UniProtKB/TrEMBL annotation:
Gene3D superfamilies for this protein: Aldolase class I
CDD domains, A to Z: Radical_SAM, SPASM_MftC-like
Cofactor: [4Fe-4S] cluster
InterPro entries xrefs: 4Fe4S-binding_SPASM_dom, Aldolase_TIM, Elp3/MiaA/NifB-like_rSAM, GeoRSP_rSAM, PqqE-like, Radical_SAM_PqqE_MftC-like, rSAM, rSAM_sf
Coiled-coil regions listed in the entry: none
PROSITE patterns linked to this entry: RADICAL_SAM
Pfam families: Radical_SAM, SPASM
Organism of this sequence: Pelotalea chapellei
Annotated ranges, domain Radical SAM core: 9-221
Entry keyword set: 4Fe-4S, Iron, Iron-sulfur, Metal-binding, S-adenosyl-L-methionine
Protein name as catalogued: GeoRSP system radical SAM/SPASM protein
């Protein structure tokens, strides 16, 4: 279904909500380490969740920071679940033991994604800045599965792991997760500061995606998810996807710890605040979202036969590195 045939949604299907900025790790690619905004009080957060549910949002994915460091996460999740929202979370896994996994299940979490950056413990631990974090992440997956929560692994592809697809798949299969998410490297926060050390060249991205697509087609009992629009250059976009190009601002929205709404966690443009603004109105009338939904080809995108599927690639990355969301994705290997 193309952008042309998809009716404009009245509200995002999913909201990625960073309810806190605190974190017990020091990851080399973190987008939120420089975000020191205040966090919403619990009663304000509750009323904001009510607004979100009434607007017609389907699911909330809690993030941060590390969401488990929020003192009221379980109560907040239970409240959101009670409103009919589907509740999930991304975590580094450090704080998830058997008891915590059971509490998460009781609070209404249907899915929890654990970040694992490498199959090698020493590489993951160094990248995350915490010794022992790899072992705790793997153990968290076991605890969550035993508690009856669907699990996934999230891996941000960069120089430390781009040639280890088979090994990462083996970890996912061993831990019986439902999904392995290969996320494209962004250039936000520390990701920008460490870009030269971590990001791949366009040619290397092409090699990675060729191998990842091959794995996706051959590996059974595991959904390998590739969220990068530029795989359209390899004719690999999912035919069932609801939109072309980036989903940010079309299917999903980001809310920061202080309530500020942004198109995604990697685009630091505030388009409103959930406390004071009407979500549906912002979703409908935001000039920033309108521009994202109607990108115009520039540069090498102008004559590219794949543009209608790719729509210039990752908008966040283009904006971060060029200052223009219509610019071609810097990861693009096309001519």
């Amino acid at each position: 279904m193309s952008n042309e045939t998809l009716p404009q949604l009245q509200a995002p299907l999913t909201i990625n909500w960073a309810i806190n900025n605190s974190c017990n790790f020091a990851c080399s690619h973190c987008y939120s380490r420089e975000d020191t905004h205040e966090e919403l009080p619990r009663d304000v957060l509750y009323s904001s969740l009510e607004k979100v549910a009434k607007a017609g949002v389907f699911s909330i994915n809690f993030g941060g920071g590390e969401p488990l460091l929020h003192p009221h996460l379980l109560e907040i999740a239970a409240f959101a679940s009670g409103l009919g929202l589907r509740v999930s979370m991304n975590s580094n896994g450090w704080l998830i033991d058997q008891a915590k996994a059971a509490e998460l299940k009781q609070a209404g979490f249907t899915k929890v994604g654990i970040s694992i950056d490498s199959h090698r413990a020493e590489v993951h631990d160094s990248f995350r800045g915490v010794k022992g974090s790899h072992a705790r992440a793997l153990a968290a997956l076991d605890h969550l599965r035993e508690a009856g929560i669907t699990t996934s692994i999230s891996t941000v592809i960069c120089r430390i792991n781009s040639t280890t697809i088979d090994e990462l798949v083996a970890v996912a299969l061993d831990k019986r997760v439902g999904q392995l998410n290969f996320h494209n490297f962004k250039c936000s926060g520390l990701g920008m500061a460490n870009k030269d050390d971590l990001d791949l060249t366009p040619a290397e991205w092409k090699d990675f995606y060729r191998a990842a697509i091959a794995a996706k087609h051959t590996v059974k009992d595991l959904d390998i998810s590739l969220d990068d629009p530029i795989i359209a250059l390899l004719d690999a976009r999912d035919a069932g996807t609801l939109v072309k190009g980036s989903v940010c601002g079309k299917l999903s929205l980001n809310i920061k710890a202080n309530g500020d709404m942004t198109p995604c966690g990697f685009i630091p443009i505030v388009i409103g605040n959930i406390v004071r603004d009407d979500l549906r109105q912002v979703w409908k009338d935001s000039a920033v979202l309108e521009k994202m939904r109607n990108k115009q080809p520039t540069g090498k995108c102008s004559g590219c036969s794949k543009y209608d599927d790719c729509l210039g690639g990752c908008t966040a990355r283009a904006l971060a590195l060029t200052g223009d969301m219509n610019s071609p994705d810097p990861h693009c290997w096309g001519n």
